[in-house]
Design brief:
The protein is an alpha+beta fold and 128 residues long. The chain has 2 domains: 40 residues; 82 residues. The strands form 2 sheets. The chain has a 3-stranded antiparallel sheet with strand order 3-2-5, with no helix packed on it. The chain has a two-stranded antiparallel ribbon with strand order 1-4. It is globular, with a radius of gyration of 16 Å.
Length: 128
């Protein structure tokens, strides 16, 4: 199944580890095969890893973008997810945590990232 990316002028994205920037006009790209793609808005910089949910998102993002298996990233994910799950009581959020873990174990890192965004939204709402 093809992936269609609609890019704003100057928008950046990562494609299989390479940072690519769109030119000065809106553009549409169609990727015909499987590739690791992450839009600029979904890329988290290390200095943005400031909360427990973001500490979960970051190693998952790095596993998704990595071209090789890195056990230290997985270990970091497990540690941070365990800490997060020990601190929450909301059953819906706990279910999301289990789903993220299941996706990571299956190597479905992009799905896990989407679910991690829900954890970040929950956390942001609680911190405000």
């Amino acid at each position: 199944m093809a992936l269609k990316l609609s890019l704003k002028p100057g928008e950046k994205f990562v494609l299989n580890g390479a940072v690519v920037q769109n030119g000065d006009r809106r553009a549409t790209l169609v990727l015909q095969n499987r590739a690791a793609v992450l839009r600029e808005k979904d890329i988290m910089q290390e200095n943005e890893v400031t909360t427990p949910a973001r500490r979960i998102y970051f190693p998952v993002m790095m596993m998704y973008l990595s071209t090789r298996k890195d056990d230290s990233l997985y270990d970091e994910f497990v540690l941070r997810m365990t800490e997060f799950m020990n601190a929450i009581t909301n059953p819906d959020v706990m279910t999301d945590c289990v789903a993220v873990s299941r996706d990571v174990m299956a190597g479905e890192f992009y799905k896990a990232l989407n679910r991690c965004r829900k954890l970040i939204e929950y956390e942001d709402a609680r911190l405000k």
